[in-house]
């Protein structure tokens, strides 16, 4: 998909379709009004007929025979007073999905006047959403259903009498395209079924990303992990014939700084539950148990291209969780890299086991701040549904600044408490820790378990089990993996790069 900026009245645009926004109040302005007068009031007629009310995700197609733009797609943007620039990702995504499935190959997308002076951010969301709209989950079909064929997307800088800043739109496109490609990379990796997506395959993908974007790359095999004392991930991996890997990508954007952010993602390429085996119902979805890891690799790919002035390391513990004859058993005791012993109560609580060693390794590699993302607990879906990612931390200031940054993206995060008593709950009678407790506060006790491996390092844990993939197709996004947490990861890294160095080095209370 190629993006460019264009300007001028609708009559000067040649495209398979012109995309214009309408709000729920039905008042036409900017590009929508210009297109409407070009068409002799056809858009106003459609609105008056009630065929479209301007709700988010609503689309209606108006044919424009005789015009250089052959059709107008009217897309709802919801209530004008609630307009949020991030909503333009869904606006562009809905247009791409609707038109792309109807053999349209080129679009001109108009921006609403409501973006004000934020043409850069607006264009970034349009590019990100347009790219995200192109993915379908039918990639393994011999004939994928109605592929999206759009190859050109022009963002229209003219809205009625108003001209947006073309240079701002251009730089927004460049940024949004990198992010959209990264989001799609994470989604494609996650979609890949576990017979193809093994730890070694994920390692190979990380190597490709490193090569393409100039990142440093290494991966520990099982012998190397054993030498480092990573008995926790090795315990999980024992039940599988596929070898585990500890995958690392590194980006050095500020060699003068000793600050280093670690992004850690659960890369469990298939979770059967192990000996504490899961029920068959929905087990196939556990190919998505590496969404956190995919998100880390994809975010690192974007960071390697954006080149912010900050140091970032991406770590993905990758393993299968299988009930093979050598599998770890309930009651077994594992020893993690930091020496802590763990009683395995439930082999299905394996995410925290592979993350334990990854978090220790992050610290060995010099991380001064850590954010992990993991499809860690079914309990987070009980708490927050599929609406928001559970967010837990040992550092309120770091967490608040992350939440502020995440609000500038289309992803949703919700702060949950990590009370000290949960650290008591995860203690074991026979060992230092146990990997499973009762049903109460399951996501929070899981976070308390991870907390035992980060020491004093400021750390945020993101439980993406409810948000990393979806069963519900929307107008702008296919069902399947969503790309969480790529957008928030990249936004966090960029926000850290924008902080002056003295703030990053901790001499002020600014946490990112
Ligand atoms: N990968 C699962 C969590 C999960 C569940 C992700 C549903 C997405 C959808 C994780 O490894 C797991 O099995 N967690 C257990 C923990 C329990 C045994 C303490 C769970 O949530 O049931
Ligand atoms: Mn599990
Ligand atoms: Zn799991």
Question: What labels would you give this structure?
Answer:
disordered C terminus; alpha/beta; Aminopeptidase; nine-stranded mixed beta sheet; binds zinc ion; binds manganese (II) ion; 22 strands; 512 residues; binds ligand BES; six-stranded mixed beta sheet; 16 helices; Leucine Aminopeptidase, subunit E, domain 1; 2 domains
Secondary-structure topology with pairs:
Elements: E1 2-6, E2 17-22, H1 30-38, H2 42-49, E3 59-63, E4 71-76, H3 88-100, E5 106-110, H4 119-133, E6 152-156, E7 158-159, E8 162-163, H5 166-191, H6 199-213, E9 216-220, H7 222-227, H8 231-237, E10 245-252, E11 261-265, E12 267-271, H9 291-306, E13 311-321, E14 333-335, E15 341-343, H10 351-364, E16 369-374, H11 379-384, E17 389-393, H12 396-406, E18 413-415, H13 421-425, E19 433-434, H14 442-451, E20 459-463, E21 469-470, E22 480-481, H15 486-498, H16 501-504
Parallel strand pairs: 1-6, 2-4, 2-5, 5-6, 11-13, 11-16, 12-13, 15-19, 16-20, 17-18
Antiparallel strand pairs: 3-4, 7-8, 9-10, 10-13, 14-15, 17-20, 21-22
Helix pairs in contact: 3-4, 4-5, 5-9, 6-9, 8-10, 9-15, 10-14
The structure holds ligand BES, manganese (II) ion and zinc ion.
């Amino acid at each position: 998909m190629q993006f460019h900026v264009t300007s001028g009245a609708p009559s000067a645009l040649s495209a398979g379709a012109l995309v214009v926004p309408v709000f729920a109040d039905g008042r036409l302005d900017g590009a929508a009004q210009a297109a409407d007068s070009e068409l002799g009031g056809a858009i106003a007629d459609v609105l008056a007929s009630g065929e479209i009310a301007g709700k988010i995700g609503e689309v209606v197609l108006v044919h424009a025979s005789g015009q250089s733009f052959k059709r107008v797609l009217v897309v709802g943007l919801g209530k004008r007073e609630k307009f949020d620039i991030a909503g333009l990702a869904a606006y562009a995504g809905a247009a791409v999905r609707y038109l792309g499935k109807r053999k349209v190959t080129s679009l001109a997308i108009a921006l609403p006047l409501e973006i004000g002076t934020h043409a850069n951010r607006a264009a970034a969301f349009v590019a990100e959403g347009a790219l995200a709209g192109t993915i379908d989950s039918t990639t393994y079909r011999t004939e994928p259903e109605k592929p999206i064929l759009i190859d050109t997307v022009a963002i229209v800088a003219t809205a009625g009498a108003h001209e947006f800043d073309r240079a701002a739109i251009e730089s927004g496109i460049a940024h949004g395209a990198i992010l959209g490609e990264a989001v799609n990379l994470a989604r494609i990796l996650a979609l890949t079924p576990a017979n193809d997506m093994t730890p070694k395959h994920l390692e190979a993908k990380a190597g490709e990303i490193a090569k393409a974007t100039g990142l440093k790359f290494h991966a520990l095999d099982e012998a190397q992990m054993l030498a480092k004392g990573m008995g926790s991930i090795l315990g999980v991996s024992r039940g599988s014939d596929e070898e585990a890997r500890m995958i690392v990508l590194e980006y050095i954007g500020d060699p003068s700084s000793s600050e280093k952010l670690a992004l850690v993602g659960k890369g469990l390429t298939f979770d059967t539950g192990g000996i504490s085996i899961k029920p068959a119902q929905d087990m196939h979805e556990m190919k998505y148990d590496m969404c956190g890891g995919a998100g880390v690799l994809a975010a690192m790919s974007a960071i390697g291209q954006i080149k912010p002035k900050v140091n970032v390391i991406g770590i993905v513990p990758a393993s299968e969780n299988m009930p093979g004859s050598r599998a770890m058993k309930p009651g077994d005791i594992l020893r993690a890299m930091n020496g802590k012993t763990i009683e395995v109560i439930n082999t299905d609580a394996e995410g925290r086991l592979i993350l334990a060693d990854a978090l220790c390794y992050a610290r060995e590699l010099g991380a001064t701040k850590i954010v992990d993302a993991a499809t860690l607990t079914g309990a987070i879906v009980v708490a927050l549904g599929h609406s928001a990612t559970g967010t837990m931390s040992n550092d309120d200031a770091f967490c608040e600044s992350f939440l502020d940054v995440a609000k500038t993206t289309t992803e949703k995060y919700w702060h949950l408490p990590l009370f000290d008593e949960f650290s008591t709950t995860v203690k074991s009678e026979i060992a230092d820790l146990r990997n499973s407790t009762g049903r109460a506060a399951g996501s929070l006790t899981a976070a308390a378990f991870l907390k035992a491996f980060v020491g004093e390092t400021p750390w945020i844990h993101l439980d993406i089990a409810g948000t990393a993939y979806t069963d519900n197709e929307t107008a702008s996004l296919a069902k399947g993996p969503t790309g969480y947490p790529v957008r928030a990861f990249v936004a966090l890294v960029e926000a850290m790069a924008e902080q002056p160095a003295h703030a990053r080095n901790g001499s002020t209370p600014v946490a990112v």
